[in-house]
Amino acid sequence: MIITLDPGHGQFKNPGVLPGYYEGTRVFMLAYALKRELEKYRDTTVYVTREKLEDDPSLAARGSMAGKRGSRLFISLHTNAASNPEAHGVSVFYSVRRKDSKKLGRLLGEAVVAEMKKKTDITYLRGVMTRTQDDGHGGIEDYYGVIRNSVKYPEVEYSFIIEHGFHTNPTECGYMFRDESLECIARVEAEVIASYFGLEKTGAEDGYTEYTVAPGDTLISIARRYGTTYRVLAEYNGIKDPDLIYDGQIIRIPLYAEISVGDTVRIKSDKNTYYPGGKSFSAWVKNYDYAVKKTADSRGGAVYRNGDRCVLLGERIDRRTGEHGGSIDSWASVDYVTKIRPEK
User: Fold this and answer.
1) What fold does the segment set 257-344 form as a domain?
2) Is 81 exposed, middle or buried (0-12, 13-18, 19+ CB in 10 A)?
3) Does residue 229 carry a pLDDT above 90?
4) Which of 141, 175, 291, 318 is deepest in the core (most CB within 10 A)?
């Protein structure tokens, strides 16, 4: 299933009532958190209309991206605003041309409300609705440009705008300003989508993901792809002879999502930058392991670069000797590194 997520607006658009809050920045973080959650499900491809935080494509371009990429589902993520600071609640808009999508819109809205209300006590579902305008030919069309342009493509069966509370309301703005809140919202939205479309988890929730052996694969080549060793994969999968794998065989890849200061990590072989949109690094960087120096900022909060949660790589470690050398001191996405399990 192909899904396109649209973090509304640009980096510094629509400030909230709390200093430093910008709708365009917070929903960007939410989009990538939701992307990570959705990609835990099999056969799910997720695109985001803003690859970099500073990106701000037009409304037409955002909606069209969903259709051009063959997306079945398009969600534009927002927080709301009003002149009255007491205004609050979650709103979901769906396309007048996709009336059957209202059910999924309501499920998403109710899930977000239930999660937000745990902390805010005030959030409620304002409505699941359409908003229309005259199409200039005696008919009506969707008012919102992102929805209007997405449903021009028949592939896009579901198109929504979700307003995750009001950034003009101090309580809801405060909720959306916390990284852990975005992670919670992403999780429940992904769960609703997965349940509605019958998506199955890859096994990542159990500490592993799965890879299907293709012609020409070896256990060594698969291990390199995931930044681990063939010995780890053989032990983890109960493979007695690492030279004997077959096409179509399912190989479980152990995941180590929780990374702590001092852990040893290895950069995945298929990654060429430190984080999405970050600078490229030289090939030699992948030849070493690294001791993690930091996992949080000075206030103890998670560190994000272009929507990806990052850790600070520290001392360089020689893989052959285990000796510690110089320091790299660069932030790397946790999705770009593998925590190394000591070999027996």
Assistant:
1) SH3 type barrels. (2.30.30)
2) middle
3) no
4) 175
